[in-house]
């Protein structure tokens, strides 16, 4: 029997819920067991995965807990590329140099990037999560919000076990089912994990070579180009015309340069840079640093589809290599708004005829376009940044 140890009032509440929900969980379990077998899992694997399994109600609590506060990017980057993480990354690079360079040569992925991803995903193997992955995924499947996804991951776990890639006891990771030093979900493990040392296993838990090579394989399959740029910090004039700009719009660097965008470090654009396609992102609006991002940046987002994450990986990789400073200041007086404020913003924009594409508290491309339309209608800088200052302006106008 699997147990979850909690403390205080939360433990009492979850314990009470567990008794009431044992039946429904068993209903899901009894329904899924034959489907796992039909998907190809051996009887021994089905039993090893599902016998005695109980839900972990703390997983449901985590899954439903959408944080109200949105961390400013500058605070996230301070953590992602902190002095301690950088120092640890340099040590990890030195201790694994021969392996990293061999992986770089085989897969064509820069070693510093692999170290940076390693650092962000598991603190260089120190923090991989201690949740039972089968229990976590079964709990998510039973809850139902992401049932199809979670069941697909459990089927992938069955394939991992039957193919001898892992032992049942190895399957620990995050509450969301991500595993090992690379934090791969099971389907990604099957598709991208690598047996780098040729011992017959894809050990992303305790084998640094397998873990790092697996990350390299994922990036290589996502189109990574060795020694190519990832991102460059740029200075964007405060009066820059953003009327036709969108974060997913690509132009040659030469075109961006001709429009008035310069390198933040004051250097001239190289000939190689000018002929590359790049996107302009303004994660904190025109008052903050701008960045031109290249194809390798998009490859990082295949690992984690987050601009903040990709910027964190890029910055940490630079610092592990001995550089990496953002030159321009951040608008610390204009932090991003909370989720409830985003819903209020979306409601106000919709009421004024600027359709944000839904009122869900998530500031996506449609909300950005709606906010830019509002900013243009008020003669404001139309950068689409949902900071506190613009929020106050929208609320005052509604």
TrEMBL record:
Entry-linked InterPro entries: Lysozyme-like_dom_sf, MltB-like, MltB_2, Peptidoglycan-bd-like, PGBD-like_sf, PGBDSf, SLT_2
Keywords: Signal
Record Pfam families: PG_binding_1, SLT_2
Residue intervals of the Peptidoglycan binding-like domain: 339-393
Residues in the signal sequence: 1-20
Transmembrane segments: none
Gene3D superfamilies documented for this protein: 1.10.530.10, Bacterial muramidase, PGBD-like superfamily/PGBD
Domain Transglycosylase SLT per the UniProt entry, residue ranges: 25-317
Full protein name: Lytic murein transglycosylase
Organism: Hyphobacterium marinum
Organism classification: Bacteria, Pseudomonadati, Pseudomonadota, Alphaproteobacteria, Maricaulales
């Amino acid at each position: 029997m699997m147990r979850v140890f909690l403390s205080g009032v939360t433990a009492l509440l979850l314990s009470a819920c567990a008794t009431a929900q044992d039946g429904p969980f068993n209903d899901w379990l009894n329904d899924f067991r034959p489907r796992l077998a039909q998907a190809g899992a051996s009887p021994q694997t089905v039993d090893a995965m599902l016998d005695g399994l109980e839900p972990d109600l703390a997983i449901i609590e985590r899954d439903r807990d959408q944080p109200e506060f949105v961390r400013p990017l500058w605070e996230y980057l301070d953590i992602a590329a902190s002095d301690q993480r950088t120092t640890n990354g340099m040590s990890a690079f030195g201790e694994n140099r021969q392996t990293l360079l061999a992986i770089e040569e085989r897969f064509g992925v820069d070693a510093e990037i692999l170290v940076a991803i390693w650092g962000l995903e598991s603190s260089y193997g120190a923090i991989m999560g201690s949740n039972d992955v089968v229990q976590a995924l079964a709990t998510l499947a039973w809850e139902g919000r992401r049932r199809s996804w979670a069941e697909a991951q459990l089927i992938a776990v069955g394939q991992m076990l039957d193919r001898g890639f892992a032992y049942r006891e190895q399957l620990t990771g995050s509450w969301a089912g991500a595993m090992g030093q690379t934090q791969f979900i099971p389907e990604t493990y099957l598709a991208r994990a690598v047996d780098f040392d040729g011992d017959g296993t894809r050990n992303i838990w305790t084998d640094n070579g397998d873990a790092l090579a697996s990350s390299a394989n994922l990036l290589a399959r996502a189109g990574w180009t060795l020694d190519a740029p990832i991102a460059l910090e740029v200075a964007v004039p405060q009066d820059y015309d953003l009327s036709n700009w969108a974060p997913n719009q690509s132009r040659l660097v030469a075109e961006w340069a001709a429009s008035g965008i310069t390198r933040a470090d004051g250097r001239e654009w190289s000939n190689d840079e000018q002929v590359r396609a790049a996107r302009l992102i303004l994660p904190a609006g025109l008052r903050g640093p701008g960045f031109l991002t290249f194809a390798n940046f998009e490859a990082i987002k295949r690992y984690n589809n987050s601009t903040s994450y990709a910027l964190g990986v890029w910055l940490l990789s630079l610092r592990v290599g001995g550089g990496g400073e953002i030159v321009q200041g951040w608008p610390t007086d204009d932090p991003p708004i909370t989720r409830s404020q985003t819903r209020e913003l979306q409601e106000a924009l919709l009421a004024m005829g600027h359709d944000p594409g839904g009122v869900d508290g998530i500031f996506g491309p449609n909300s950005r376009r709606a906010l830019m339309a509002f900013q243009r209608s008020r003669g404001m800088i139309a950068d689409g940044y949902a900071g506190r200052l613009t929020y106050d302006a929208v609320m005052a106008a509604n």
